[in-house]
Amino acid sequence: MTRTIVVHSYRGGTGKSSVLANLALLLAGEGRRVGVVDTDIQSPTLDLLFRLCPGPSLADYLLGRCEIEAAAQQVATARGRGSLYVVPARTGTAALRELMTTGYDVGLLPEGFDRLSVHHALDVLLLDTHAGLNNESVTAMASADVLLIMARADRIDLLGARETIALTGRLACRRTLVMSMAPEGIDREAARLLAEEFYRTPLAGILPYVPQMAALHGERIFSEAHPDHPLVGEFRTIISALDARDEVSRA
Fold first, then answer.
1. How many CB atoms are closer than 10 A to CB 145?
2. HSE of 10 in the Cβ direction (CA atoms, 13 Å)?
3. Within a 13 Å sphere around the CA of 143, how many CA atoms are in the beta-carbon half?
4. Helices (DSSP H) in 36-154: which residue ranges?
5. pLDDT tens-digit profile of 92-148?
6. Which of 108, 114, 206, 245 is the most buried (most CB within 10 A)?
7. Pairs from 170-173 (Cβ < 8 Å, separation ≥ 24)
8. Please, which contacts does 194-199 make with residues 24 or more away whose CB atoms are closer than 8 Å?
9. Of 44, 92, 33, which is closest to residue 65 (Cα–Cα)?
10. Which DSSP letter does residue 54 get?
11. Distance in Å from the first CA to the final CA of the chain
């Protein structure tokens, strides 16, 4: 049975799309069958990170121009292990203008997620979302088995994360928090206690600011370019927390 993990943030700039891309590559590298859908139609990223070829997209599926299975592109994985399929949000701006003008049936999103999972016999489906709350983000969160909330270690982001957690308290999904761009020397134990006591949500990981990631300019995925970097170990820690079902909260 496919496990659906939604990655979300209250504000942009947390690195959520980059983190999702790294998790996807590492999960596939473990031999799993992994699907990724970029639901961020307003500001897509994953087509660039995964260097996808032009072709059908999620927007085309929502507009009735293709089946979602046709929009999934297979991406090469480390040492050829596992399988990775990526559905880009859109290519160009014409589809975005059309969706904004005509709208679409929001029920197509969960239906498409289910069809993609069955068609490729996925072990894990990762859904990237637009920052904040909109139709695509809320619908994706409603489809989640696990909601991974990204937040920078600052007051505005963390208050936004609390709002997201409060909203998703009504959904039947587990939740976990990841702090990104953490300053050097952050007290990890204090951060864990903050997450568990203030947010009532386990902390799956703390990701430091890493200049080498910025130096990639979005042209490569970090774990692919620097497989032995300590940050990749932090990504694996997050995967372990997501795999351990008692490490995330339904409260």
1. 18
2. 22
3. 32
4. 46-49, 58-62, 68-71, 94-102, 108-119, 135-142
5. 888 888 988 988 998 999 999 999 999 999 999 999 999 888 888 888 998 999 999
6. 206
7. 171/141, 171/142, 171/144, 171/147, 172/250, 173/6, 173/141, 173/144, 173/145, 173/146, 173/147, 173/250
8. 194/158, 198/162, 199/161, 199/162, 199/165
9. 92
10. S
11. 23
Q: How many CA atoms lie within 13 A of 238 on its CB side?
A: 29
Place of tokens 């339904």: 250
Per 3-state DSSP, the chain is made up of helix, strand and coil in percentages (nearest 5) of 45, 20, 35
Q: Which pLDDT tens digit goes with each residue over 141-187? A: 989 999 999 988 777 787 787 878 877 777 778 889 999 988 888 88
Q: Return the beta strands (E) in 112-173 as ranges.
A: 124-128, 146-152
Residues in the chain: 251
Supply 248's token pair.
């995330």
Q: What residues contact residue 227 under an 8 Å CB cut-off, 6+ apart?
A: 78
Contact of 117 with 35, CB cutoff 8 Å: yes
At a CB cut-off of 8 Å and minimum separation 6, what does 77 contact?
A: 25, 28, 29, 83, 84
Residue type, 16: K
- For residue 216, how many C-alpha atoms fall within 13 Å in the half-sphere facing its CB? 15
